[in-house]
Amino acid sequence: MKKAIILLGCPESPSQTPLALYASNKLTGMGYQVTVASTPSAKKLLDVSDPEEHYVKNKTDIESCLDGLEEGDYDLLIGFVAKDAAVSYFVTFYHILNTKSLALVFHRDQEKLDDFENSVRESTQATIASARAYHNPTPLRVRLDRTLDKLIGSGPKQDKPDMDEQGDS
Amino acid sequence: MFCLDTYLRESEDYEIHMTRSGFKDCARFIEKNAPEVVHVKPGEKIVGARIIGIPPVPIGINEEKGTIILPYTKPCYGTATVEIPVPVEEREKIRAVGID
């Protein structure tokens, strides 16, 4: 079975946790064994949101995961990039794993969004899905669906109507 | 073996030049202020810790003071620039993994 890792940074943005559950569910449906590597606070949000681990079965601490990480450990890297530190973590995981990668770049501020996107583009060959998003996960969810289907190929149909796609602040 | 995380927890003999900054600002600080700069790949193990950042990641070496200056990133706090004393063999190891 193919393995995917999802990186969660600081859970400051309310969009991150629901999107992580959504992405994990989607990847599981595409046949991946999914691991979420996160900060302790992001993990607590996942624990409470998914108490019976229907959506995320494997969780690990992002720093200890990085410490033991080797090329070949995962077939797909997906990173939530909403802070400068998250850019650094994503780029570092990318260069160690050297595998198919997708950066989900989001921020409420357009200037920061552009800056994070440029940093990822200049230092990796990862696919990028980006959107202005903060409270509303839909803009990034729509781009995640489109990009994952393009990157991996269509899995079981899970797309919902593209309602409320406008960014928020 | 020298371990950066343990060292920062257990010692007070280090200097933080920048804190809660962006990686690029910290990298610029190292490039500008370190007498010698070695560039390494992100993920390289430096003083027992994976170096986190955007390539090429600069590590400053001050042979006279016996210190190195490196970017130190935590997910919620951004990047700091930390200067720590390290044994000569650790400084040699950094030069050995340099990509310059």
Strand share of the residues of chain A?
Answer: 15-25%
Oligomer designation: heterodimer
- Low-confidence stretches of chain A are 155-165
Instruction: Label the structural class of chain A.
Output: alpha/beta
Count of runs of 4 or more consecutive helical residues of chain B: 3
User: What is the molecular shape of chain A?
Assistant: globular
What are the low-pLDDT stretches of chain B, counting only 5+ consecutive residues below 50?
A: none
SSE blueprint and pairings:
The complex is a heterodimer of chains A (169) and B (100).
Chain A: E1 2-8, H1 16-29, E2 32-38, H2 40-49, E3 58-61, H3 62-68, E4 76-81, H4 84-97, E5 100-107, H5 110-123, E6 127-132, H6 138-152
Parallel strand pairs in A: 1-2, 1-4, 2-3, 4-5, 5-6
Chain B: H1 4-10, E1 15-21, H2 23-33, E2 36-40, E3 45-46, E4 49-50, E5 57-62, E6 67-74, E7 78-85, H3 88-96
Antiparallel strand pairs in B: 1-7, 2-5, 3-4, 5-6, 6-7
Question: Which features would summarize this protein structure in a list?
Answer:
heterodimer, A: 169 residues, alpha/beta, Rossmann fold, 6-stranded parallel sheet, 6 helices, 44% helix, B: 100 residues, alpha+beta, 5-stranded antiparallel sheet, globular
Descriptive overview:
The complex is a heterodimer of chains A (169) and B (100). Chain A is of the alpha/beta class and 169 residues long. Chain A has six helices and six strands; from the N terminus they run βαβαβαβαβαβα. The longest helix of chain A has 15 residues, at 138-152. Chain B has 100 residues and is α+β, with helices and mostly antiparallel strands. Chain B is 27% helix and 38% strand. In chain B, the strands form two sheets. Chain B has a five-stranded antiparallel sheet, with helices on both faces. Chain B has a two-stranded antiparallel sheet with strand order 3-4. Chain B has one domain (4-96). Chain B is globular, with a radius of gyration of 12 Å. The chains are: A alpha/beta (169), B alpha+beta (100). Chain A binds chain B through residues 9-10, 12, 39, 41, 62, 66-67, 69, 83-89, 91-93, 95-96, 119, 122-123, and chain B through 22-24, 41-43, 49-55, 73-79.
